[in-house]
Design goal:
globular; three-stranded antiparallel sheet; 405 residues; alpha+beta
Length: 405
């Protein structure tokens, strides 16, 4: 391989030969370096990258820390909206930065160190982390190591496979919070605090009636996603915040779906659309309209301004059209916690309540899965067939009827 550096005018450049293509020699050359040393250092780095098939590191020498950065950037970040969401990327980034403690090891030797991974898991237990946090962090590391096996072929075995989280004391409060089902009377009490005239009302009744995730709820466009002729709502997006901007992103697991709605929800939606139009006339040029830009970001502008982008009618806005988001919903939850005294309430519980009501009334699990947009039927069965009081009583009634027949 011919290689070297040379001075051209006031700056230095480096060059080296690459593999021949169609029998012709190819050369890489780059200039603009102030000194000969800078050119030599840059040439060495470029040759190393070339010899490692475009990588800026040697797979045999890379540390676990540098590999995880590489995995996060190339396997996750570059596939946002193509299998991974921005929130998943940020979650993995946080776990790697805050909890993974194996950065000093070489990746090539770390593959033979399940004992070190087990020690780390046990240390997280001693620090008081929840079982779900430990399992999710271990899953993150395991996924990164799987990627190092295939397609990268940097290592041959995954050190996370034999590792076990083991038994942990059940956090009763956390379990009650996660599994909370909002009783009908309690939901009515919440709606009394946030009546139809309140801009949070739809963010409560929609997930209760159709089981949407919070990001999906706030991404519903009343213009295009609600079809009163077919009595359907189309779930096409979730509203996600990136830095300081809100974007329309694909729903979780790409769970695009169409769900039927009942007459109660239809009536509420029609009333809100009617009131929205009244508010637009009331505020006139000062009303804030909402638009989707070509990059799927969301922006707002006064009604008297011309915006050459698609206008939408968001599910939740204030009287003057100001956008209400999942971030805004935190205020609604705080009111329910502290003013109404319901500390178990959280945004996801309304989706959970919808699924539980369906399960308690013997709706086919496949129908529940498709309605909620679960990734697979296993999630539905694990989440919505636990023993509620209604299900327990139903089992007793079925048994009594059987033995008395």
């Amino acid at each position: 391989m011919a290689e070297g550096v040379r001075k051209r005018g006031k700056t230095w450049s480096y060059y080296f030969d690459t593999a021949k293509i169609n029998g012709e020699r190819n050369k890489v050359e780059k200039g603009g370096f102030r000194t000969q040393k800078e050119a030599l250092d840059a040439r060495a780095a470029a040759i190393a990258e070339y010899n490692n098939t475009g990588r800026r590191f040697s797979p045999q020498e890379i540390s676990v820390s540098d590999y995880l950065d590489y995995w996060l950037e190339n396997a996750i970040k570059k596939n946002i909206d193509h299998g991974y969401s921005y929130n998943t990327y940020r979650d993995y980034e946080s776990k790697i930065r805050l909890h993974l403690e194996h950065g000093i090891y070489r990746l090539s030797s770390f593959q033979y160190a399940p004992d070190k991974v087990q020690e780390w898991v046990d240390s997280m237990k001693l620090k008081g982390f929840s079982k779900s946090m430990i399992k999710n962090t271990l899953t993150c590391l395991q996924g990164a190591m799987n990627y190092a096996i295939l397609p990268l072929k940097y290592i041959q075995s995954n050190p996370c496979i034999p590792v076990s989280v083991g038994k942990m004391p059940v956090d009763v409060d956390a379990k009650a919070h996660a599994e909370y089902v909002c009783p009908k009377e309690e939901f009515e009490r919440i709606l009394a605090r946030f009546p139809e005239s309140n801009y949070f009302h739809l963010s409560l009744v929609v997930p209760y009636h159709i089981g949407t995730r919070i990001g999906e709820t706030f991404a519903i466009d009343l213009n295009e996603d609600v079809d009163f002729k077919t009595h359907e709502i189309h779930i096409r997006h979730q509203l996600t915040k990136i830095e300081k901007t809100w974007f329309f992103k694909p729903p979780k697991y790409d769970s695009y779906r169409t769900v039927k709605m009942g007459i109660t929800l239809e009536r509420i939606l029609k009333n809100h659309i009617r009131q929205r139009k009244i508010n637009q006339m009331k505020y006139g040029q000062h009303y804030l309209k909402t638009y989707v830009l070509p990059d799927n970001s969301i922006t707002q502008a006064r009604a008297d301004l011309n915006v050459a982008c698609k206008e939408i009618m968001p599910l939740c806005v204030k009287d003057n059209g100001e956008l209400v988001t999942p971030e805004s919903f935190k205020y609604c939850a705080r009111v329910i916690h502290y003013e109404l005294g319901n500390v178990l309430f959280h945004s996801h519980c309304l989706r959970h309540t919808h699924g539980t009501i369906l399960a308690e009334n013997s709706v086919n699990p496949k129908t529940v899965m498709e309605r909620l947009g679960h990734k697979d039927i296993k999630t539905t069965l694990q989440t919505y067939t636990f023993n509620t009081d209604v299900m327990q009583q139903s089992a007793v009634d079925v048994f009594e009827k059987a033995i008395q027949a």
